[in-house]
Model the fold of this input.
Amino acid sequence: MTSPDSPAPVLRVRDLVKEYGDGDAKVRALRGVSLDVERGDYVAIMGASGSGKSTLMNILGCLDVPTSGTYLIDGADVGSLDEHQLAILRNRRVGFVFQSFNLIPRMSALANVELPLVYGGVGQAERRARALAALEQVGLSDRVHHEPNQLSGGQQQRVAVARALVTAPALLLADEPTGNLDTTSTKDVLQILDRLSESGRTIVLITHENDVAAHAKRVIRLVDGEIVEDRRQAPVEGVPPRMAAL
Ligand code: ADP
Ligand code: MG
Done:
């Protein structure tokens, strides 16, 4: 139980089950997943291809609904929200980074980063200021007017991180964010995530690479839709081991 003076965890997940299809074709992608994620934690979810990582992440990000089980984000029971409330939650509380960047083509980096604020109803001047600040945080102040196809993969992913951050979400979710990147760009993106974690952001990252998971403070391993390991590598308040070694 959470005592009245300790804040609710950013995530509280109980007995999540997700099934796709039915009959003989039924796939149980999640078989009863429970976990809490505290504010400021940096969690890597690992597992082989097909183990349910993306399914879990899509549910955590309110992009998909579980077959059964409950899920609270920042204390709000996601299952009890209507479509409108859910859209607001998704827009304000969660920032996403995908393996394939998912930037809008033929729109500048700046416009891409402003987009969640457009949906959030933020006025133009504030939108611009916040988007520029987010792009500065990822080291792209000199590329704000470039379009995605004028940027390297690493730069595109940094734009995507800025877009995820611009709403100041309670939770940053990243599904294999370095999966399409070369070594140098991977390092850049991981360094940005380390810095965000150090400044107190809550991050849940999916990866199947040990090098990437080494940056996290906690590693959760999924096998066939179940958590088989939940290991802390660094205290929530502390720096991740990879940073401590620097
Ligand atoms: P991971 O991200 O760890 O590779 P996924 O969550 O994508 O795993 O998939 C978990 C299981 O669920 C796999 O067996 C996959 O084939 C299945 N699955 C995922 N999405 C769907 C879907 N939309 N329809 C049917 N089966 C799916
Ligand atoms: Mg996946």
Q: What stands out?
A: The chain has eight helices and ten strands. The radius of gyration is 18 Å. The helical segments are 53-60, 83-93, 109-119, 124-137, 153-165, 183-198, 210-213, 241-244. Residues 40-65+82-245 form a domain with the Rossmann fold fold (CATH 3.40.50.300).
